[in-house]
Structures are given as structure tokens and as C-alpha cells.
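FORM 7B: Structural annotation worksheet

SECTION A. Query
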Amino acid sequence: MTRYLASLLLIFMLASTIMADRFSVEKESDKVTVNLDGKLFTEYLIKSGAKPVLWPVIGPNGEPITRGYPMREVSPDEKDDHVHHRSFWFTHGAVNDTSFWHEGGDSTGNIVHREFLTVEDGDEAVIETKNDWVDRHGDVICHDVRKLTFGVTGDSRFIDFDITLTAGDKPVTFGDTKEGSFGVRVAGTMRVNADKGGKIVNSHGQENKDAWGKQAPWVDYSGPAGDDIVGIAILNHPKSFRYPSHWHVRTYGLFAANVFGLHDFKGDSSINASHTLQPGESMTFYYRVLLHPGDVKGGKVAEAFEEYSKTEKASK
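SECTION B. Predicted structure
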């Protein structure tokens, strides 16, 4: 009888483990902590510098895979350049007469958290927020609603980042500049210039410096974090505005999707790829950030894009 009860208890414990939610969230006034299987995955900070960010971001091997500076002191493997490259963010360098990409000075603005719309845990975690874009003059010129979904697929983790930007009561122009828009700064050890095995590859097979400014459905940035090779792939959904994106991806560690910077990317000042939202008009971007073990092949990035590209998204 005792053995029978012990067996039932073991079955119950195993079933409870299988059925338990993988993600838990802890909401505070200034951040939301996302845990995966009881361990830190990331934190959504409503303000770091001049914008909301994710930091730290923990990869599939348990190591941080985005740069820690300037949220903490610079580490030996990092460079203390570009203070506005804060781990994981969305901004743009020319919105009317204001830069939301840079920090400090008379020409910059702030993306100000207004409210949490959704904070959920379960098999996936969801954070949805509304944010005001406050220009250099102190005026709210547009707002965004961003939805971040955190999940697991196989040995990889993912963060779906969906953002809709809506103009206020006046037109808003997102200018043609390379300084934008959806960005990640990879860990110092992963950057190509660290000469530790870091590598950039896009969906067309273009590598490292040759991937800069190119148009592609996805780009992968892999390199060592801790004792393992891991990768960050950004996948652009076909329903995203101006799909497929161009990429402001650098060998020093910047990794950004930018659909507006064509005159820089193509080296042609006659090109104007800016876009104006009329009052009340919106545009929506969809990305999946895949955090995978191994390089682009080991992480099965091409297959992951095919799967992601078939997910339902609204056309905007």
C-alpha cells in the first residue's frame, strides 16, 4: 500500500511539473521581471536613458547575450561606446526634428511609458504597454502600443516584438537616416570585432560587413557567450511595414532593423525613404527575436523564419 501511494505521489508530482506554467512575471511600478522555469529571462524596464528597454536578456545557455553597459559598469569584454545602445529597444533617429535614437542634447526626445495594458504569464508571457513619444519641445507627437510575447521553441527562446506607432493631431515624419530603429546590442564577446568567433549572416548568405545596409527577411548574429556559441536572430514578418527590412548591423555589436535609412545604406543622397504618418494614421512592425544555441545553422534560423512567417498578423 505504501509503495502504491508513493507511486501515485510521484505520478502527481510529474504531472504537476509538466502542467506548470513555464513563465512567471513580477510586475513593479518601474519594471516587469520575466522568469522562465523559475529563473530570470529578462526585465522590461519602463525607463533606461530615454526609453523603455529589455535588460538583461538571458540566452538559452543561461548567459546574458546583450551588452550590459550602460545599465551597469562596462565589463572587460565590452566597449563603452554609444551609450544609447541599451540592450534591446525601439527608437528612431529622425522623427520630425527630433532624434529618439540618441540621448542628451537639445535635439533629442524621450519615449515615456504611459501604462501597462497587459501583463500575463503562462505557457508564454506577454507584456503590452502604451508609450508617448515626446519631442525636443516637450510635445507628444505620436504614441506606440508595443506587445512583447516571450516563449520557447525547441532549445531556443523567442521574443515577439509587435509595435504600432500612431500619429497625434499633426503629421509625423520618420526620416531617412541609418540611425534606427528596432535594435539589439549583442554581448561584447559575441561581436565580430572581438575576434572570438562572432559572425553576422543574413538570409542571402551575406556575412559580417557585407550584411550592413542590405535588405533581407532575417539576419543572425552569433558568437560566444560563456562557454558556448549562441545566436540572436531577428526575423521580420512579411506583414510588417515595408517588409523586408534593411539592416543597420555592425561588426562592433549593433544589430538593428531599419526600413527608413536607404540613402545611407545605398550611398545615394537623392533617395528619400522617409515616411509621413498623417494625423491618426498608424504603421505596424512585427519582429521575432530568436535566441538560439549554436550558429545560424545550429540554430535552424532559416527553418524558424519559415515557421514564423506563417503566423497570423494583421496587415498595417
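SECTION C. Observations
Confidence is low (pLDDT under 50) at residues 4-18. The chain has one domain: 2-309.

SECTION D. Sign-off
Analyst initials: ____
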